[in-house]
From TrEMBL:
Record's protein name: Fatty acid synthase
Single GO MF descriptor: oxidoreductase activity
Record GO biological process: fatty acid biosynthetic process
Domain Malonyl-CoA:ACP transacylase (MAT): 12-242
A matching Pfam family: Acyl_transf_1
Species for this entry: Operophtera brumata
SUPFAM superfamilies xrefs: FabD/lysophospholipase-like (SSF52151), Probable ACP-binding domain of malonyl-CoA ACP transacylase (SSF55048)
């Protein structure tokens, strides 16, 4: 840059949907990345998770399991942070979406690598153990305000992605009916693969106490996040709270 002024470096961590079969197969050629994944794998052994296999050899169908999706996303994000740290790259700002906030916690040094992948594991395990009713999610080409006005009573705006893009969440039949209604009028609407779970909605509330108990075991001494980490899960007025 001509001014000589350094530009801020931001780490951005994706959520569910960023996983795919073989997602770390080629990255495992990087010694630092591979060593990080092996550390994460050891942390997950007591829970029967074969992390290296999941990241390199497991088929697409394996990612229908939310546990597999979550631990793979978290482990890759932890390993990428480790690679960047070795290269001397440190973030000035950190932001993530959904399960990607676990990667934020590692980048912010509020969680260890083991704690990060275990938090991801228990996030998925809690969803399964709660035995939730089948749910669905869909991406729709509406503003947040339009979604609030148009969503059926049992469908909720869940993720505010952009000015004209929102992810909605709710029971399968209700989401499918809303998608069909919007599509019929020419508005973009498409189901997204959420492994049969209505994430980011009241429909997963039963998993919350299970997850909290697990996280209290995994993270016995929580550390506050730094101002670098901009939470996408909390409104701005709660960024300085203990949540």
């Amino acid at each position: 840059m001509e001014s000589g002024e350094a530009r801020p470096v931001w780490f951005v961590f994706s959520g569910m949907g960023s996983q795919w079969a073989g997602m770390a197969r080629h990255l495992m050629r990087l010694p630092t990345f591979a060593a990080s994944v092996q550390r994460s794998a050891r942390a997950l052994v007591p829970h029967g998770v074969q992390l290296v296999h999941a990241l390199t050899e497991a088929p697409d169908a394996a990612f229908d399991d939310v546990v597999t999706s979550f631990v793979c996303i978290a482990a890759v994000q932890v390993a990428l942070v480790d690679v960047l740290r070795e290269l001397g790259v440190r973030p000035d700002g950190i932001v993530g979406h959904s399960v990607g906030e676990i990667g934020c916690a590692y980048a912010d040094e509020t969680l260890t690598g083991a704690q990060a992948v275990l938090a991801a594991y228990w996030r998925g395990r809690s969803i399964i153990d709660a035995e939730l009713a089948p749910g669905a999610m869909a991406a729709v080409g509406l503003s947040w305000e339009q979604c609030e006005a148009r969503c059926p009573p049992d469908v909720v705006p869940a993720c505010h992605n952009a000015a004209d893009s929102v992810t909605v969440s709710g029971p399968v039949a209700a989401v499918d009916a809303f998608v069909a209604e919007l599509s019929a009028e020419g508005t973009f609407a498409r189901r997204v693969n959420s492994s049969g779970v209505a994430f980011h909605s009241k429909y997963i509330a039963a998993a919350a106490p299970l997850l909290r108990r697990s996280l209290e075991r995994v993270i016995p001494a929580p550390r506050p996040r730094s101002p670098r980490w901009i939470s996408s899960s909390l409104p701005k007025e709660q960024w300085d709270s203990d949540i």
